[in-house]
Every structure is written in C-alpha cells, then in structure tokens.
UniProtKB/TrEMBL annotation:
Pfam families: FMO-like (PF00743). Gene3D superfamilies: FAD/NAD(P)-binding domain. SUPFAM superfamilies: FAD/NAD(P)-binding domain. This is Cyclohexanone monooxygenase. Keywords: FAD, Flavoprotein, NADP, Oxidoreductase. GO terms for molecular function: flavin adenine dinucleotide binding; N,N-dimethylaniline monooxygenase activity; NADP binding.
Amino acid sequence: MIAKDTHYDAIVVGAGFGGIYMLKKLIDQGLRVKVLDAAGDVGGTWYCWDKEDLLEYHWDEHYIKQPQALAYLEHIVERHNLRQYMQFDTELTSAQYNEDTNAWEVSTSTNETFTCHYLVTALGLLSKRNFPAIHGLDKFKGEKYHTGGWPKTYDFKGKRVGIIGNGSTGVQVITQLGKEKQVAKLISFQRSPQYSVPSGDGPVSPTYRSQINENYESIWSQVRNSAVGFGFEESTVPCMSVTPAERQAKFQEAWDKGNGFRFMFWTFNDLTMDPAANDEACNFIKSKIKETVKDQEKARKLLPNEYYARRPLCDAGYYQVFNQDFVDVVALKEEPIVRMTENGIETTKGHYDLDVLIFATGFDAVDGNYTRVAVKGRNSESLSEHWATVGPESYMGVSVANFPNLFMITGPNGPFSNIPPAIEIHVEFIADTIALAEKNHQHQTQPQPNNEKGSIVEATLEAERGWTDLCNEYSKDSLFRKSPSWIFGANVPGKKYSSLFFFGGLKDYREKLQKMVDGGYVGYKPF
C-alpha cells in the first residue's frame, strides 16, 4: 500500500479561476502542489491566461452565463490535465504556521492534515454568504435558498416567491424569474433601490469574434493598462465641462451600448467624485426608470435616493419585469420586516404569503472567508485577531505581516477593477515571487537565520500599514465611501467600516507592484 502524500511545496485553497491558474503556474515551475476545495468540483468563472484556447473557444453571448462559464472552466482543467492535483469536498478548517519548521500545517474537514511551504488562498472576494438578521428566520417552512448556493435545478412554477436583496445578483434573479413567467407571485423586498443600466448582452456575431481575435494582444494590453479593466477607454472629460445636451447624449450612448462600468467610467471621469456630476447620472437613470415602469407606485419604490456610487449594476430587462402584474416590490424602509413566519414575511404593514424565499443578500466580502477560518501566523496570531483593530489589511492585497509564505489572491486592498485581470496580476506576481524565493534559497552559501528550512517571504508591518493608509487616501474623497456598500463592509452588521480595495485603478496598481519588485521587493523582509 502506497502512503498518501501529506507534504507539498505549495497548497492552493480554492479551485476557482484564481486557484486553477495558480496551480498551473506553480506546477510549471516544478513544484509539488495540491489544490483543496470545499465544493464537489471546480468552480468560478472564466479568465484569460490561455490565449490559444480563448482564440478557438466558442462563446455564444457577450455575457457568459453560469453554465457556460462552468463548462469552460471544466474544459480548461481537462485541457491541462489539472484534476490530478485537486482534492474536492475538502474544506480548510485551520492553518497554523510552524515557526520551528517554517511550514504551514493545514487541517481539513476530512480529518486530514497536510503541510506545505507556501500556502496560497484563492478563496474569492465574494463567497462567504451573508444572511440578514431577521427575527424567526428559521421558522419559515417553505423553500429557502441563498444565491451563493443556488440549486442546479429548481421548479418555482405556480409558487409565490420572495427575494430579499436587490444588488447585482438580486437584479439578475428577479429579471430571470420575471422573464420565465412561471411563478404565481414574485415579490422583491428591497432596502435600497439600485441604479441599473442595460447590460448590452446579445449574441456574438462572427464579425465581432474575428475583430476580437485579430486584436487580442492590443485589447488585453488596454485592459491591463486601464483603470477598471473592462475593455474600454475611461473618460478624461469632466461631466460639468460639457453642455446639458452633450451630457444627455453621452449618457444615452452609454445606455444604448450597455454595461454598468461603461456607464460609470466611460461617460465622464468624475461621476464617482463630484456630487454635481453624480446627480446628472442619477437623474438620467431615474428618468429611464420612470419611463420604463408604467405603474407609478412601483416606479416610486424603485427610484434610488442615494448616490450612484455602489457597484455599477447592469441588467437584461430588470425594470421591465415590474410591468407584469405578478411582480411587485416592497420598500423595506417604509415597511420594515418584523419577523419571519411559517408561511412568509410579516412587515409593519401586513403579511406576505410565500412558498419560496430567496436570499440575494450578498457576501461578507473580501475578508469574510479568511476570518471564519483559523489561519494563524507567528505567535499563533489569527488573521481575525490581526485585523481586529483597524480592519482587514494586507500589503498590496497579497501578503500579511507576521504570516510568512502566505499569499492571498485578491486579498484585502487589492485593486477595485474587473476581477479576472486583477487575479492574473496577483497569480503571476505570486508565482514569480515564489520562483525567486526558491532560487535565492538554493543559491545561499551560508544558511540565513531562521531560514535553513526553506525561504521565508514576509511583508513588514510598516509596509502593510503604509499600503492601508494609501488605500484610505485614494478612497477618502470618493462618493463610494459616502454610500453604504459591501465595498466598505457596510452590508454586514458589526463589521468594521474600512476600505477593502485600492481605488487607484488597475494600471496604477500594476505600476506600484512592479516598482516594488524592481526596487528589490521593498516592503518585504529579505528572502
């Protein structure tokens, strides 16, 4: 009987898009790697590192839906023969850095213990589900689902469905169920009405696909050198510098093209900074809501009353579905939820009978998956303890002081941008850093203090605090900061309100990362 391997050069936690790319990079460097994931198979969404395959792979629509994204991810794993390195249905329960052996000791839900030199977490920004604190939540006897754990199949035909939450996912679910027209009743329970613009989704034409393939390198270069990484040039024009007619024309053009990030960042360069400019965008979208939703009372409830400064949403007919009699909206600020009952939701104004309750209430974003697991560094300090005073911190979204050889893909204070490009930057930086650390250690003629059992890559506390201060400086004047949003942790009761992202843009982030590397890994202890 062959003994099962328990020690690896690197363990990657998470088999989504970040984890898969990280695995590929590290095994290509000759390291022994294992991927652990709590799910039963690979997950996540698409990304761009396999150019040859992307040029050939067939995409039907501009916005890839979950089944197509998952199929592509499974295809990539099979194409590169990566499944052999993965272990599923295995959740990380704890990770302890052993200072004597310079190794991470990893425990799992399968009662296994592994050790590794490098621990890389690819847990995702949005994966720890957030549930609202509603009195009597467990009393409801109908079906309950969180959009973060959506069933592979569902049958809501003829059922009364309630949806709590109307962020990006809530908007998508409401739109889809409204279009299917199979539910008996669809009620959106929303606390804060959202600004949403058309997605611009549709079939990918052969001509469009040819243009993408012919200009692949230049498109990807533009993405990596842009602010938000969505494939368009961000505007350099202030909103109030043009005439009212020109403003309306530009907003209409963005509305017709589709995409929420395009509407926010392609139209004008100050919608997230200047309240007057923001008001112009708000008023344009509100006029579209009033124009689209025929029932005046529904339209009134759907009109946002905050800054247009949350994650910019887009949809495929969200407001239109409210023109159907079986779709309604409940404004929770006007009639708060009192309690859950066995048969539905009771508010201050009455009771809503439900057969199905869907929670589109988002996630404990960015750091939630780290603080729920006992990840302990030097002196057995956990990440939750490390972040208890000032909130989630890291050095450049990747490393944490006092946690040697721990690397986070899209950790706290990474770039606020399209996620796949940000993930690629993190994965490539981590892979290059590990390669350099291995090379330096092998070439040492004299063992270094506390380093004889392998290289130690560790950020300094000074560098971590400095990066946090910079992130706060970049966001302090942003209207994002003046809006209650998951981007600053406001969606989770009791969570410290702090900047979870670097708001300088993807290009600026890449340049700062490269400057740090070119300077000899400034902010890291010598390795």
